[in-house]
Design goal:
Layout: H1 13-25, H2 31-39, E1 60-63, E2 66-68, H3 71-82, E3 89-93, H4 99-105, E4 110-115, H5 118-130, E5 136-140, E6 153-158, H6 167-171, E7 173-185, E8 188-197, E9 200-209
Parallel strand pairs: 3-4, 3-6, 4-5, 6-7
Antiparallel strand pairs: 1-2, 7-8, 8-9
Length: about 220
């Protein structure tokens, strides 16, 4: 059974409001994004034992060697993705717990998300059903492949660190589209933004980040 999305105690609205204040203090300015994150029940996307920490600005384990991203990183990457929009159709690589997916689903009309670890995808699907998030489509797949059947995408967001930018994702980016992706190895990653302008790709570097690696293959 999935818990009440309203939350109590350490998952209450007051606790969520404190998180939003911290995000604003760190420079997040998109009002619509902040409103969505204020309402999004992050405690439903972590194990019940960690629910009391759900609104701390920190990454938390979700099992199978994966984590739910720090709220600031979710906000930062989402804000960057939405700049210069509109982003009517977005691909997410790495569904994970589904938290980033849920935030996106309240900000763009259609979200497509791929995840290589089947048990995580199953849990995320159940959460989306419970929360009545009906504009999300999911696929169990190697994230390096993206989801070409539904491309091209106005935005692509990658929630795991790639050694290099997968060419298949660039191919699925629509003209005027934007890719946000952590790039680098175990010694550190840089958040990179690639904008497709006509037939060319323009790359800029933003923040130092730390994500679990983008791996090949699927886990059933």
């Amino acid at each position: 059974m999935i818990a009440d999305p309203r939350g109590i105690g350490m998952t209450s609205q007051r606790t969520r409001d404190r998180l939003i204040q911290r995000l604003q203090e760190r420079g997040i300015k998109n009002i619509q994004l902040l409103s969505v994150m204020r309402q999004c029940p992050r405690h439903l996307f972590v194990d019940e034992a960690l629910a009391s920490r759900a609104y701390e600005d920190t990454a938390l384990p979700i099992g199978l060697g994966q984590t739910i991203s720090q709220p600031y990183i979710v906000a930062r990457m989402t804000e960057i993705l939405l700049q210069g929009g509109p982003r009517n159709k977005v691909l997410e690589v790495g569904t994970g717990s589904g938290y980033q997916t849920a935030v996106l689903s309240e900000l763009v009309p259609r979200v497509f998300s791929v995840e290589r670890i089947a048990p995580l995808l199953k849990q995320a699907r159940e959460r989306f059903y419970h929360l009545k998030l009906n504009n999300i489509r999911l696929k169990h797949s190697d994230g390096n492949w993206g989801w070409p059947e539904n491309g091209p995408y106005d935005g692509i967001i990658v929630t795991c660190g790639a050694e290099q930018i997968p060419p298949t994702l660039l191919e699925q980016l629509a003209p005027g589209g934007r890719l946000v992706i952590p790039v680098g190895g175990s010694k550190g990653q840089i958040l990179k933004v690639i904008d497709r302008i006509g037939g060319k790709f323009e790359e800029t570097e933003w923040d130092a980040v730390s994500f679990v690696p983008l791996l090949s293959g699927q886990i059933g």
